[in-house]
């Protein structure tokens, strides 16, 4: 029997009172170096995902759909692409009703340093936070794919009279050493928190599972501000939530864990969907999963849409129906503005403005926007970056040894192709 049963959801009215009094801050300044050339010119939250979205659209959409409509986006590393996307796609909130998405770039507001850690990134915007007079502060990462009702998290935080609440996942114990791992008691109060431990603790009665942090936190606003100042004054702190602030708080204050399965939206398989697409392999797998008959992530849910910058494009077009030249896509997702001209696309995802010319075959691949694939190209298990022009006759993905001479190939055999690898210089905003 499960020791921690899922509780019934609280009333919508109760939840909405809290969301209106909440300010959300999305930490979107990280590079995501494990994505290699995909983050040479953009931060990880700005990386395209799912045919038409950016990664940051998921936490932003979760906020809007949950009723949290005062949002700050904290940026730092190569933020121009992210800023451009937010300015074009997230300007629909109405400031007359105190709804906004506000950009908070690193600008040395308190000292002559850039953001020195996740806690410091919040501290350096403390004057802005106080100006909004929020009762609760919701802190989110900007680089994960998931659908979550934050109002459920806020309601539980208030019900338990918590000072801080940490959203958590249950994952296999063998994988927990890459996360912040929590120990809890019967009330889900956190009794210990260790960042990336060599020997993670397991969940009570589940020796093969660990409870790990999702990097999603709720604070009572006044409590957070006091702790930001205390941490800033501590010269021995690295100013990080997982390494410094949370371990300090759990033994002194009311810090609780919130189980993601209580607030996850659209659990297709009954298992909460959350993905860190921080490697080429994970990115490729998560995108291709969307092309399956019943993907684990439901993008077709009208009750919990993922919002984004919607470019005005013509429908995808498939031309030629000859025996030796047929434009077709099978088990695939093809976005607006694409033209499949006498080519075959199988088990692949094409973003907008992709042209595939005659006699080319694209299989098990992810093609980002504004790519031209010339004639007789063969791609298999490939990720193609924006603005690539693939020359006629190119073959990639079938021979890792040959591919490594020109491209980046992962340990699992996924090939990444960027314009620079093709000797092409691109000056567009990424």
TrEMBL record:
Keywords: ATP-binding, Carbohydrate metabolism, Glycogen biosynthesis, Glycogen metabolism, Nucleotide-binding, Nucleotidyltransferase, Transferase. The keyword ATP-binding applies. InterPro entries: ADP-Glc_PPase, GlgC_bac, GlmU/GlgC-like_hexapep, NTP_transferase_dom, Nucleotide-diphossugar_trans, Trimer_LpxA-like_sf. Alpha-D-glucose 1-phosphate binds at residues 115, 180, 195-196, 213. It catalyses: alpha-D-glucose 1-phosphate + ATP + H(+) = ADP-alpha-D-glucose + diphosphate. It is an enzyme of class 2 (transferase). Its EC number is 2.7.7.27. CDD domains: ADP_Glucose_PP (cd02508), LbH_G1P_AT_C (cd04651). It comes from the Bacteria. GO terms for molecular function: ATP binding; glucose-1-phosphate adenylyltransferase activity. Residues 24-291 form the Nucleotidyl transferase domain. The keyword Nucleotide-binding applies. GO terms for biological process: glycogen biosynthetic process. Residues 314-417 form the Glucose-1-phosphate adenylyltransferase/Bifunctional protein GlmU-like C-terminal hexapeptide domain. The record marks 76, 114 as: Could play a key role in the communication between the regulatory and the substrate sites. Pathway: Glycan biosynthesis; glycogen biosynthesis. PANTHER family: GLUCOSE-1-PHOSPHATE ADENYLYLTRANSFERASE, GLUCOSE-1-PHOSPHATE ADENYLYLTRANSFERASE-RELATED. Involved in the biosynthesis of ADP-glucose, a building block required for the elongation reactions to produce glycogen. Catalyzes the reaction between ATP and alpha-D-glucose 1-phosphate (G1P) to produce pyrophosphate and ADP-Glc. Belongs to the bacterial/plant glucose-1-phosphate adenylyltransferase family. Homotetramer. This is Glucose-1-phosphate adenylyltransferase. It comes from Nitrosomonas cryotolerans ATCC 49181. The lineage of its organism: Bacteria, Pseudomonadati, Pseudomonadota, Betaproteobacteria, Nitrosomonadales. The gene is glgC.
């Amino acid at each position: 029997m499960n020791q921690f049963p899922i509780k019934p959801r609280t009333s919508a009215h109760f939840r909405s009172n809290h969301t209106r009094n909440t300010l959300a801050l999305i930490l979107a300044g990280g590079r995501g170096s494990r994505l290699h050339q995909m983050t040479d010119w953009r931060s990880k939250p700005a990386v395209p995902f799912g045919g038409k979205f950016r990664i940051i659209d998921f936490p932003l959409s979760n906020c809007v759909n949950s009723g949290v409509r005062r949002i700050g986006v904290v940026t730092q590393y190569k933020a121009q692409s992210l800023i451009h996307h937010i300015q074009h796609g997230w300007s629909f909130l109405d400031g007359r009703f105190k709804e906004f998405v506000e950009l908070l770039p690193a600008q040395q507001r308190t000292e002559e340093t850039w953001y020195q850690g996740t806690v410091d990134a919040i501290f350096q915007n403390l004057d802005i936070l106080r100006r909004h007079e929020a009762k609760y502060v919701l802190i989110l990462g900007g680089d994960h794919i998931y659908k979550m009702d934050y109002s459920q998290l806020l309601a539980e935080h208030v019900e338990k009279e918590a000072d801080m609440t940490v959203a958590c996942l249950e994952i296999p114990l063998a994988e927990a050493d890459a996360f912040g791992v929590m120990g809890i008691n019967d009330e889900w109060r956190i009794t210990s928190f260790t960042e990336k431990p060599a020997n993670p603790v397991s969940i009570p009665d589940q020796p093969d599972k660990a409870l790990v942090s999702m990097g999603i936190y709720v604070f009572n606003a006044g409590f957070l501000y006091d702790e930001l100042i205390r941490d800033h004054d501590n010269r021995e702190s690295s100013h990080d939530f997982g390494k410094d602030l949370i371990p300090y708080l759990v033994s002194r204050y009311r810090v609780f864990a919130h189980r993601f399965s209580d607030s996850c939206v659209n659990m297709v398989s009954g298992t909460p969907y959350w993905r860190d697409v921080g490697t080429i392999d994970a990115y490729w797998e998560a995108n291709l999963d969307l092309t399956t008959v019943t993907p684990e992530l439901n993008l077709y849910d009208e009750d919990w849409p993922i919002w984004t910058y919607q470019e005005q494009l013509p429908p995808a077009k498939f031309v030629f129906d000859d025996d030796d030249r047929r434009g077709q896509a099978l088990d695939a997702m093809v976005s607006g503005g694409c033209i499949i001209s006498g080519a075959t696309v199988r088990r692949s995802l094409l973003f907008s403005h992709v042209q595939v010319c005659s006699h080319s075959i694209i299989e098990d691949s992810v093609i980002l926007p504004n790519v031209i694939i010339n004639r007789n190209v063969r791609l298999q298990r490939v990720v193609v970056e924006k603005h690539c022009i693939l020359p006629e006759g190119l073959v990639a993905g079938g021979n890792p040894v040959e591919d490594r001479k020109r491209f980046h190939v992962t340990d699992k055999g996924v090939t990444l192709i960027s314009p620079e690898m093709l000797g092409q210089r691109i000056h567009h905003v990424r």
